[in-house]
Write a structure and sequence with these properties.
heterodimer; A: 311 residues; 66% helix; B: alpha/beta; six-stranded mixed sheet; 8 helices; 26% helix
Chain lengths: 311, 383
């Protein structure tokens, strides 16, 4: 549709598409609507980022400084003081942290977003879940920056990634994106009704972090205990785990290493799954997260109807 | 012409919480405490707007007109019924609500444009027009939080009208800015109308509706009580207001005073420009009442030609028929048809006690070539 110049007689709308405002739009209408407003999403993401770093001197650099600091602290604690014996521990840690940071950033910011922007929600018409998705989008931008730093770091220390597994990363990332978006969308709506959700999520995310093998190795610390009881699957109910492990497999590469603390002792770090198994698991997860995303949209649609009397 | 707005059987209910428990603790401790009342803001409203129409939505505060508008804009979802829209829509309601105060005016123009559903490229094309219209060129790169409220609203208005939407929704925002900017806004809305765009105009100001709208929808406490040509709808609106006013302030006066007829001695309302006019008004009263008589004259395009001073013409009505005479020594109107409203107000001029909308239509004929509505009687000579 073009923009008619002033004074020009207006074009006929006989053939224009019809938009329907009704009590409960169907799921497909919602998804179509969401897709048609992707440009708004893009603008919201960039305004989010711009606002966040608007009056700081270092600006976007902060999105790297803070994770670098966390990385440094964990490295000191686990590699230097606790001496877990994992060689090249920084790379192991870094590849898991980029994934976790993206997830945590998104959920922490998105949970409160509808309440924080109540003024906008009550006055301007757009698919409300775009607000939560814009927070996820901003986190994706930071993720991309951190990933770039990780790649540069890996190249700089002369570490060779598992090229063969590289092709799984996009699938793994999409699964991460859809899972994070699904949770962000649902939490942003639930928080409208239960304002404690924002604080509760902050606490839960800390627990969740330790349930994910970012600073320790799943194969080394958890797997032996779980497999003894046949409970390995339970650990992988946390979708972030598979994604983190995939990223570690790509960037850290080694499944079995020799301990730096006790020479000659073997450490199992990562699952020794084949490429096909990694691929299948990630594809399966992507499928599940896509379903979760659609379910989240449906839940949001239900909860959205009463926003105006709660905000 | 296609219908661009189709409101079908739309109802909207609000749940009003009397005791709000929003924290988890309170919800767990008092799962059922706090009563919820259901408030019907709109009940089964239906109407259709065709392309190019300018429709007014009139109603008092609390009549549901803003709720209806928000439903049409998609900010609220109706509880039942549906609204079908064709073409792009921009709403001038709660101007500037989409602004991010931390961002510059420039960034906000693009963001607000995106919220209205316009792409970056489309906003690029009209960016200069927007800035020029808003008259804040030198502050466009300043953060919006430093803007005065006037600048804020001007920028928002500029975006909304310059994206050239197919449907423009205006909600009592014409009270913004100084008088000159208001006139500019009204001009812009008129141009919209001339371009054949559809305008939905919400107000409780009957004069603005008369001036702009072809048609008006009247809402009262969520019910649609009229939908028709502006004049007819406004008559219903006025009469309804009247019933309301009487209910609130002087219930005992309800229906006690009515305006029976407005006539001329000649029996015709056709006059020559500049001639005199005498009107006889018959008012019947059931009880004695002292109030003020008021007279309004409108041109057919909705322009208010004259309203008499609402406190200057006291009348003492006695039970039975009262005759009131109106004398106009010289009617300085030009060619055209003019509608006359007459009414009785209370002594302070606040409450309408009796009203007759469009009590008569006066046909004025002039033999000159002057244009407009008023004969100034100017004599022009070269000196």
């Amino acid at each position: 549709m073009g923009v008619p110049s002033a004074g020009q007689l207006h074009h006929s709308l006989d053939d224009a598409p019809v938009r329907v405002v009704s009590a409960r739009p169907t799921l497909s209408t919602r998804l179509k609507n969401l897709w048609s407003r992707r440009e708004l999403l893009q603008q919201l993401i960039f305004s989010d980022i711009r606002i966040k770093y608007k009056s700081s001197t270092l600006g976007l650099l902060w999105s790297m400084i803070a994770p670098a600091f966390t990385l440094g602290v964990y490295y000191l604690v686990f590699s230097v003081f606790l001496r877990n014996g994992i060689p090249n521990f920084v790379i192991y840690l870094f590849s898991g942290l980029v994934v976790w940071n993206m997830f945590q950033n998104s959920i922490n910011t998105a949970t409160g977003v509808i309440v924080d922007r109540a003024a906008l929600v009550k006055k301007v018409s757009f698919p409300r879940e775009i607000l939560a998705l814009s927070n996820v989008g901003a986190a994706v931008v930071y993720f991309a920056i951190q990933l770039a730093v990780l790649v540069i770091f890996v190249a700089a220390v002369g570490h060779v990634p598992a090229w063969r597994f590289l092709w799984i990363l996009p699938i793994s990332f999409l699964a991460l994106y859809f899972f994070t978006s699904a949770l962000a969308i649902v939490m942003s709506a639930v928080n409208v009704y239960l304002r404690d959700m924002k604080h509760l999520m902050e606490v839960l995310l800390q627990l969740w972090f330790w349930l994910t093998p970012v600073v320790y190795s799943y194969e080394h610390s958890i797997a032996p205990h779980l497999s003894r009881h046949g409970l390995s699957l339970i650990y992988f109910l946390n979708p972030i785990t598979l994604i983190v492990v995939t990223f570690q497999r790509v960037f850290y590469v080694n499944t079995v290493v020799t301990s730096t603390v006790a020479p000659f002792s073997r450490l199992d770090i990562l699952p020794t799954w084949s490429f096909t198994k990694f691929l299948d698991l990630n594809l399966g997860l992507l499928g599940i997260t896509l379903v979760l995303f659609i379910v989240a949209e449906a839940i949001f649609g239900r909860l959205e109807g009463n926003f105006e009397s709660e905000l | 012409m296609a219908s661009v707005i189709d409101v079908e059987d739309v109802s909207k209910q609000f749940k009003i919480h009397h005791e709000r428990h929003q924290s988890l603790k309170e919800r767990l401790l008092h799962p059922h405490s706090g009563s919820t009342e259901v408030f019907n803001a709109l009940s089964r409203v239906s109407f259709t707007v065709s392309q190019g129409e300018t429709v007014g939505i009139v109603g008092q505060n609390g009549s549901g007109k803003s709720t209806l508008l928000k439903c049409i804009c998609g900010v609220l979802k109706p509880t039942s019924g549906e609204i079908r829209l064709r073409g792009s829509l921009a709403a001038l309601l709660e101007l500037g609500a989409g602004f991010q105060t931390e961002l510059s005016g420039r960034d906000n123009v693009y963001l607000y444009g995106a919220m209205l559903g316009f792409s970056r490229r489309m906003v690029d094309a009209i960016f200069e027009d927007i800035v020029a219209f808003s008259e804040i060129e030198q502050f466009i790169d300043t953060q919006v939080k430093f803007y005065s409220s006037g600048m804020y609203v001007r920028l928002a208005f500029a975006v909304a009208v310059n994206v050239n939407p197919d449907i423009l929704v205006v909600d009592e925002v014409l009270a913004v800015g100084d008088e000159r900017f208001q006139a500019k806004c009204l001009d812009r809305i008129r141009r919209f109308k001339e371009e054949g765009r559809t305008i939905l105009f919400v107000t409780h100001n009957a004069d603005q509706v008369r001036a702009l709208c072809d048609r008006a929808v009247v809402l009262d406490r969520g019910d649609m009580i009229a939908d028709g040509p502006t004049q007819d709808s406004l008559r219903i609106f006025r009469e309804h207001l009247l019933v309301d006013a009487v209910e609130h302030d002087a219930a005992h006066l309800l229906g006690t005073i009515t305006i029976d007829s407005v006539t001329t001695p000649e029996g015709t309302f056709e006059i020559q420009s500049g001639s005199s006019l005498h009107l006889d008004v018959v008012v019947s009263a059931k009880t004695a009442y002292s109030g003020n008589f008021v007279l309004e004259l409108f041109a057919r395009n909705g322009t208010l030609v004259s309203r008499s001073d609402i406190q200057a013409s006291p009348v003492n009505l006695v039970p039975g028929r009262n005759r009131i005479g109106i004398d106009m020594a010289q009617v300085p109107l030009l060619d055209g048809l003019y509608d006359l409203n007459v009414g009785v107000l209370d002594q302070r001029g606040h409450t309408v006690i009796a009203w007759s909308e469009k009590a008569a239509s006066i046909q004025v004929a002039s033999n000159g070539r002057a244009g407009g509505i008023v004969e100034l009687g100017a004599s022009i000579r070269q000196e």
